[in-house]
Amino acid sequence: DRNWDSLKNSGVYTGETAMRDFTHQSLAWVVILTIVKIIIYFFMLAASAPLAYFGGLLFKPFEGYIRVELVFVMIVFPGLMNVIYFWIADSYLKAKSDQHGAHEETPTAAGLQNKKESLLSDEEKKQSAQPSWTTLSTPTTNQGQ
After folding, report:
1. b/e for 103-139, b at 16 or more Cβ within 10 A?
2. Interior CA angle at 27 toward 26 and 32, to 5°?
3. Strand boundaries in the chain, DSSP class E
4. For 99-125, what is the mean pLDDT?
5. DSSP assignment, residue 138?
6. Using CA atoms, how far apart are residues 33 and 27, in angstroms rounded to an integer?
7. In terms of C-beta density within 10 A (0-12 exposed, 13-18 middle, 19 or more buried), how is residue 21 classed?
8. CA-CA-CA-CA torsion sign (22, 27, 31, 36)
9. 0.70 surpassed by pTM
10. How far apart (Å, rounded) are the C-alpha atoms in residues 118 and 100?
11. The predicted structure's pLDDT at residue 71
């Protein structure tokens, strides 16, 4: 009787179980991809004749234009498939809306100011404490030469 907690909260990797959750979710994704590849293989094997017919119909207009066919086969179709693949992968892997910010601290105004100040050098901190109009330099001119 397992609870499968590590698979329920995908995209959130915090706390003591972070590495375990990431490993379980990665392994689940690899298993899912493997099963999908096997299903696609058997589908293509069983439906090879209709797929070949459909491919012939699809490429009939490009018959005399080998370069257009090549662009479609090598760029357009794989690009479209990658967009769909990454969209599905992202929806599976990213944190859900109810988990938004689960692995981030809630920023406060003071916390943001401290982070900003920690990035400044001592000289920049001194300059930011002064009004901006006092740090303006006036150009010097060489008069009398």
Report:
1. eeeeeeeeeeeeeeeeeeeeeeeeeeeeeeeeeeeee
2. 100
3. none
4. 55
5. P
6. 10
7. buried
8. positive
9. no
10. 27
11. 92
